[in-house]
Write a structure and sequence with these properties.
431 residues; alpha/beta; Rossmann fold; 3 domains; 6-stranded mixed sheet; 15 helices; 15 strands; Histidinol_DH_CS; zinc ion binding; zinc
Amino acid sequence: MSIPIILTNRVDSSLYRKYLKSAKSDLKDATEKILPILRSVETEGDLALRRFTETFDGIQLESIVWNPMDVQVHIDPDIEKAFLKAKENIESFHRAQLRKDWSIQVDGNRLGVKHSPIPSLSVYAPGGTALYPSSVLMGVIPAIIAGVPEIQLVTPPQKEGLPPILVWLAKILGIKRIITVGGAQGIAACAYGTESVPKSEFVVGPGNTYVAAAKSYLAGLGLIGIDSPAGPSEVCIIADESANPMWLACDMLSQAEHGEDSSAILLTDSEALAKEVSRELEKAFEERPKRLAMKKKAIYENSAILVMPNIEECISFSNELAPEHLEIQTKNPEQVFAGILHAGSVFLGPYSPVAMGDYISGTNHILPTARGSRIYSSLGVDTFLKRVTFQEISRESLSRLYPYVKTMSELEGLDEEHGTSVKVRTEGHQH
């Protein structure tokens, strides 16, 4: 068995249509299963959280909420150094995103925008084998820069207690509350609030299908804001004959390592390169057996190498795919990048693997998946800022523009009050 190498073109779309299908998991079944959980948390609060935690995690909660300052932990100095460096880079990149308030004169009136942060945030951190402490940095740092006043971490309980790395991260980030409830019940606690868990207006962070279903459902009800609907991790790579086939294989496998439902699509105009990458993948399976079954399933069932007539067709296909991660490994990556319309995050040149953005470069790795980058952007400071528009109308402008308001309000049948509210001000009645 080997990864499919497909020679295709834009006309014969039947050969690759399957790779344009949304990679997002079907949340219908998961949503049906979590609805009773959400309702129980809404009505029973902490009692439901304790019951579901014992049922799903096999743990009787000693406490639902922890103050990380009360927990002593020891972290390996090398791990501290790595995360502090990542924190520094993420802060530098996200500070540059901070918006300034502004105003302009339009037709004699002062109009403008004032930015204000959302009031509260929960950052979900998965537990067990899916513990991704780097995602805590990605979720919390832009929110702090945006000025969000209330931030809490939410994570499934562990039999060994709180993961030391999460406690340490909470301390260095200034987070004063860790909620030890996971799954759909943890998201519900954030959305509804309980006796112990303060309600949050916004929830971000990765999680399993039930977490994703809970976030999407509760966001649909308007109870919380979320980053974007989440699906399996994915990468698309555009490469020409100048690319290193071993490096390309490594980058495809780095996505396959996330889970068996992950996907890696290589788009190239070189059949020779395609064959080399396929050989390198097989070689890697023999040399690096960790998570082998998972990686093989992701590569053999969800991934492909598509050989296109030219790089322009690769760009076109990538824009249709709208991938979470896009690597461009060509002779002139900037020229290719100029044609890219949709991608969560783009990695330019041979020395820019996705793993750099995952951990250390400073960009955010919480990204839209499942073709979501057509309408969503990566998590950033903007995610946590609201725009409030304002206007200060001058007396002269009000009188001059009233005839237009009169005409438009009459057309819409709202002239009696809308039109009058402007008209009375033109008549000079003041108190």
